[in-house]
């Protein structure tokens, strides 16, 4: 999985949307303490730096060294590389030990994880009571261009997609989530949440080109086909843009979220 985000990691850091501050305030209000948090699969740190506004320290981990090289620095965030061979005990120790965490966040990456292993680590590392796990994601459902991006683009590139990413494309409805609900979605029924961002047409194209399905299509020898599809889709988006492509406009990523506590 790490290779999907190594080459475009610098662009990825610039083109991914930032998550609403209100999400982190809401999650912080659901945890009993505010001492230590973990951003698992942190990428370039978009979630970690917002978590650090509410927690004394944040450990942010990722399997991709390229992503970590481009991560956003913050005095309360410690970034750490997590090679794929780490054991459950090693991961628990890396993030602070048993019962050490108030909050764990997985932002748009849990579908890449060894999910049973991660849940075992999360159950051990979260404080009981009071600890919270929150996961969320988004896909190509971006308003007002859902038909072009999710319909046409994703429809054409779906044969090249890593099967794990389909969890995100299906809005985590099939994601196992054996945690006690706290009013923010539940297993099989994630909460619908929007991420409103301002983007230029170039920004949106950069987002599309850093997606895992695009990278996988290129690596499977379908680069020319993929680029032709992207050109057609982005031409359609430009025609529907409703203004100069260099002028930012408000878009809404139709995101989805689950949050819960370890079951006693």
UniProtKB/TrEMBL annotation:
Q: Which Gene3D superfamilies match?
A: Vaccinia Virus protein VP39
Superkingdom assignment: Eukaryota
User: The Methyltransferase type domain covers which part of the protein?
Assistant: 39-134
Q: Which residues cross the membrane?
A: none
Question: Mind telling me which Pfam families this protein's record contains?
Answer: Methyltransf_11
Annotated protein name in UniProt: Methyltransferase type 11 domain-containing protein
The species is Urochloa decumbens
């Amino acid at each position: 999985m790490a290779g999907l985000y190594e080459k475009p990691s610098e662009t990825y850091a610039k083109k991914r949307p930032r998550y609403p501050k209100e999400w982190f305030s809401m999650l912080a209000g659901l945890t009993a303490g505010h001492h230590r948090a973990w951003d698992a699969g942190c990428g370039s740190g978009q979630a970690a730096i917002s978590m650090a506004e509410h927690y004394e320290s944040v450990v942010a981990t990722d399997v991709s060294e390229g992503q970590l090289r481009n991560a956003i620095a913050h005095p309360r965030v410690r970034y750490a590389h997590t090679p794929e061979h780490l054991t459950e005990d090693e991961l628990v120790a890396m993030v602070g030990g048993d019962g050490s965490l108030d909050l764990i966040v997985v932002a748009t990456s849990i579908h890449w994880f060894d999910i049973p292993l991660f849940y075992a680590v999360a159950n051990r590392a979260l404080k009981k009571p009071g600890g919270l796990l929150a996961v969320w994601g988004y896909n190509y459902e971006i308003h007002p261009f859902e038909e072009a991006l999710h319909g046409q683009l994703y429809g054409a590139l779906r044969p090249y997609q890593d099967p794990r990413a389909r969890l995100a494309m299906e809005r985590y409805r099939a994601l196992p989530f054996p945690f006690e609900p706290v009013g923010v979605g539940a297993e099989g029924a994630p909460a619908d949440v929007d991420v409103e961002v301002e983007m230029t047409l170039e920004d949106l194209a950069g987002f599309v080109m850093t997606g895992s399905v695009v990278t996988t299509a290129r690596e499977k020898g379908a680069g020319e086909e993929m680029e032709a599809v992207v050109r057609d889709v982005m031409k359609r988006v430009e025609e529907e843009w409703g203004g100069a492509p260099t002028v930012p406009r408000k878009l809404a990523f139709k995101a989805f979220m689950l949050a819960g506590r370890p079951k006693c």
